[in-house]
Amino acid sequence: MPKFKVGDRVVVKDQTSLFHTRTQAYVRNQTGTVVAHRPEWVIPEDEAFDKLETGRKEPFYVVSFKQTDLWPRYTGYDIDTLETECAEGWLRAPEKGQ
User: Fold this and answer.
1) Which domain holds residue 71?
2) pLDDT for 9-30, tens place per residue?
3) Which helix or strand (DSSP H or E) is residue 35 part of?
4) What global pTM score does this model have?
């Protein structure tokens, strides 16, 4: 069962990226909103080593971020967003005030 539901605010963890290229650096430590669930799948750290049958599986989420939050000098519209998929292990609930 997924830990987060659509509408939840989440923060992308800033973890080591050794052998991991799926969680972009520019969303780490950023707060976004879950907008969709994806099926449980092998986490990218195991998928990179072709462990599709034996790898660790987690739920994935589509998370939306305001582009003005990601890039302070962004010159587009305030309502512009970016959506990306994140494995559950890369997300946490925001602390008070985040």
Assistant:
1) 9-92
2) 999 999 876 666 678 889 999 9
3) strand 31-42
4) 0.87
